Amino acid sequence: MAPATDAAITEGSRVALLVPGSTAYVELVLTLLADGIFPVPLDPALTAAERERILAPIAPDLLVTDARQVAELLAARPGRARSLPRGRPIHCTSGTTGTPKGVWSGVLPEEDAAALVAEGRDLWGFRDDDVNLVLSPLHHSAPLRFAMGTLLGGGRLVVPGKFDPARATAAIEQERPTTMFCVPTHLQRLFAHWDEVGVPDLSSFRLVAHSGAPCPPAVKRRLIELFPSGSTWEFYGSTEGQFTACRSEEWLAHPGTVGRARPGRSLTTDEDGRIWCAVPRHARFTYLGAPEQTAAAWRETSAGPAFTVGDVGTIDEDGYVRLDGRRTDLIISGGVNVYPLEVENALREVPGVDDVAVFGVPDETWGQRVCAAVVGSATADALSAHAREVLAPAKRPKDYVTVAGLPMTATGKVQRQALADLDPRAG
Length: 427
Prior knowledge:
Largest sheet: 7 strands, mixed
Structural class: alpha/beta
Helix content: 25-40%
CATH class of the largest domain: Alpha Beta
Strand content: 15-25%
Mean pLDDT: 91
Radius of gyration: 22 Å
């Protein structure tokens, strides 16, 4: 593995970051990118075996494993944290179906690097009086993007540490943040805490953006109710790139949508329903050490090179996107295509469902049998009755399993390959 020294890192070098998030962490990411050096943000809790497996195709030139190294690297490059980043960090995909892959932009020409920064600034309005409350680990791509945009805009960060609703609430009360990125689980836990202690003053917020997983409608409506009018957004994207953005008011008018194409993007679907996103030059990428997967992710369209991450959905005549799921998650039951996300969204409407994941298991009669793992107090009878009302027969789960929690990745995505172990008829 790479030596713990920065003597050899130059333009194009790769630096694996295996330390907890902090303001200094984000400053180091920006400092390295300003010199064309590529940080590789990773979970510091990875085991040695996981590190080796993920980092093998990335081949980092340096490992940063403690706060002392962060301070030394910053001291060696003073004043660079507000300079133009010359590329994107090498984030790794979530690994829901296998080994995470490093997403690589390369060193960008100055024009493209400036366009990359301007894209985030223009969409989210980063400014010098912003206070960004960081709820998610900074090795994840979305919270790091918001934190980077905040510092580049002249604002400051509040990094309370590992998410805790009481700690996050105290930060809201004391620091008066203006922006926050979160995932639906954060909102659910915050709302449950506020039901016990009262809702804090949220008037300082001008932007609350959520993504990462489907948001239950009841949670979405409470988000809109509690936070200042016009402040709440959802966006749809992936480690590879961003597809849509949607004000919550648009969601109210188009329930179930994840929005329309972000500025500079063009969205289409293919014959299988896969969503393809044409992007400007600064948003293009390859997978490090995976040329075949890179080739499969890209194709030429009338709007230019477009990529897909395999998500399937529809785009209506006004351009609003609705997701059905991921092609690789497809269940074929009795010859009918069933996308888990569609079934999950239907079951989330049942009172007592805190979370749900739908999966397929082999079945002699159906080919695959649709099953649902449910977190919460909803009964199988209530779930089954609702499914009969809103889902076609092939899409209705044949079995319901109540679980304490779902198997999740570090980024909050369900590990579907682990769900088959929950088959209630196995054994």
